[in-house]
């Protein structure tokens, strides 16, 4: 870990003006620190200054009303996982949050940090490797070891986005409020994340002087059933080999609308419009759900070691669809 | 089954003597150790798996502010190729030294190259970056079959294969090949109606102890070297330091601190000699701590292996022949546990015709270290899978085929020894009688697997002294590192002899200047051998105290008897005095009483285990869930049943991790890509059911209370038991470890 100075944040204005002074990496923000500290220790990031966001007032609460949820970026993952309204009406979000890491990490890790966490790719995390993501020439996963890498949207960087919460928020059609020196703006969470073809170095549209402050989640229709399925090698802590955030509007066994977003399979949360189309308006049964899985992966492009993820993703989508119409 | 003796202390479950210190955080571990003037050391490690070291320039690091000293292999005494005697067999001194600090070649990524002592750990880390090492990078060899090919890159130009007494004439990565033979293998297979032959591959697996390696060393101007550290054996550290540093053993004191797990991985030294070199160079105490990546990349895991097993049986289930080739990774230097694997591979069965070939092969990975029944788990994965397949082919219950062929007293193992009284059959019977085995097993994608295992256990040297206190308690002094509750299990054996409660014995593990030689806590020997020494030392106390009672009563010593904590006279006077009351009168009867005993017992008595596991295979995701687990094991006599159960449960859990998730993942350059506990997946409580530990007691004739070592054998059956359960669930034979979701999906034809 390199030496750095540490500044307690007092206002968003102060934070964005401090950030304006530098490009990426010179001045960084820390909240829970569960990802950033490991990056500092391993010399993946070597900032000169850290801004402690935990001292910002009023950004760590959840409010729920008839229109939906507002969740401050400093809200912990544990608070989201255990919030009764979220568990009841936004089940996919509670389940996704509960699947993150361990109780200790959920107790300090924040919503903003979860959305902005960096990839777990073993080439990216190796300080001695200068890969494409870090400004080098190659994504080593293409020819190297790719067991945990992307099967969708990889070109030219085959990381997977590690967030569990992000697919759930996108499936719920959530928006994200971002503050920068010019003021605030709100965009869809789906538009927040970017693919490496657009920018191989970052996973979202944030500029170096912008900060995520809040997430808005519209209230789902009453006939909504939502769920999060996460396949991993061990119980915890483990990132998804593949995950499915599914939000279904169901009448009996008929799926009136489906929102299906995948985690762990692409450099950004990956909406499967193919699966959504295959399910929408259909009576869900074994063959329809199986078909949705097949459709979802028909354009998958696995690397040398991750073909199993295609099977896994396909089966998880089928399972999610069947669970949506089960009692 | 066994004659039941009445004990007052043995078999009870007192609170362990070190419990309060550990749960309140007061116990001092290596990283906690502090001393005035302490410097902090850091080791520079090779980024390459295989490279010639062309030059090392430490000048920039030495000039860095705060740096007090830098060492390389040049600071080690010249290691001409002589053999070092470490008490447990000879080892090449050059290999031993080169693994501490590489001299001519870096043989694995993480191989120590140089080390820095500085005023803070951060400065030491910075300074490592300033050491300029020029490498000539060589192609690595990472797998035994590749390493054995004639055109494979050679790790050691001087290494010649030692094969069945002959030495090869050209460089090779095969360090040695040995063979055990029994009977006539061709005749055995001719008699068989069914023959199964299979190949197995197991991955490189780490012990996964929580506490990283550590050492603090101090050189006094008088030449006395003191090392505070966590280790499985202070005396073996002293021996290794004396050999590596070529320093008089009498000038080295090793002080063992508490240990946060070892499982075999804390017998070999890594940073201890480095700390000593830095301390000598700087004149200050130097502490060196590893981080987790250092532990994975720079210490010995247990070897990956390639195993073939061929077994034949008659239609009525008699196993007539068994043949195996065990090819084990030694890592960078010769010395895999293939020899132990060969002792265990067919050990549970009485088979007339056996051939066992073992190969020790060097590869560009860390030099392997022991891990809980080293070699036996790899071997049993093969054997127990093939036995399961034989049972299936012959339509015999898998427990029955083991009962039919199970080894008993008087049977001879293929590598020579004839079994004394052993309890394998009893573990099978206990499994058969357990409600688990009778419970329903027929749900779709659910399966049940059985496997057995053997570990021979060892004796070796132990020393114990017992000082009697005036209040009737005793201080028990020992040299065995307490990893799994052995302070308690050793103290209880002394308490039983003395007729006092376990709590009245205060056990202390002391440094190498303060007790007689005591071998490592390993080989499941400690409760057996050091416990035996405690028993004998307590007998010595009783003898001496009888003399004191005789003096008090003015009777002949032979006329004093001791039972239930009371001394009494026979033949004449009706005198009686309790152990406690007599303890208060030692001064007036001749001075303090110190009991002592040293042991090197030969009758360790092998341990057998039989495991039953139920799994559910998620055929959509390839994930295996352990639903129920029952482990039966012959403990001989369980001194402290809670700690026997703890050992069984711990071994099973590590076996489950080995079976399902754990492995070093190497890229083509020989770099481990998953050197963290996040990416190297050890099981947690979420991955495990309650492990039902069933203690079977067939007393070991080689110990006064019948103790057999219990720590190691429970890791042996799990991978095979789980593989057999997976087969029962989905009809797929898994022959490669770990059986992770990707491999299982592939094997099931889902990819």
- Determine the CATH superfamily of the largest domain in chain B: Aldehyde oxidase/xanthine dehydrogenase, molybdopterin binding domain
Supply the number of helical segments of chain B.
20
Class from helix and strand fractions of chain B: alpha+beta
- Please outline the major beta sheet of chain B: 7 strands, mixed
Number of domains of chain B: 3
Helix content of chain A: 25-40%
CATH hierarchy: architecture of the largest domain in chain B: 2-Layer Sandwich
Q: How would you state the average pLDDT of chain B, rounded?
A: 96
Please work out how many helical segments of chain A DSSP would assign: 12
**What CATH first level of chain A would be assigned?**
Alpha Beta
Low-confidence stretches of chain B: none
Query: Within the CATH hierarchy, at the fold level, what is the topology of chain A?
Result: Uridine Diphospho-n-acetylenolpyruvylglucosamine Reductase, domain 3
Mean pLDDT of chain A: 96
The largest sheet of chain A is: 5 strands, antiparallel
Low-confidence stretches of chain A: none
What oligomerization state is this entry in?
Answer: heterodimer
Gyration radius over CA of chain B = 27 Å
* Largest inter-chain contact set: A-B, 28 and 30 residues
CATH architecture of chain A: 2-Layer Sandwich
Tell me the fraction of residues in β-strands of chain B, as a range.
25-35%
Helices and strands of chain A, in order, run as EHEHEEEHHHHHHEEHEEEEEHHH
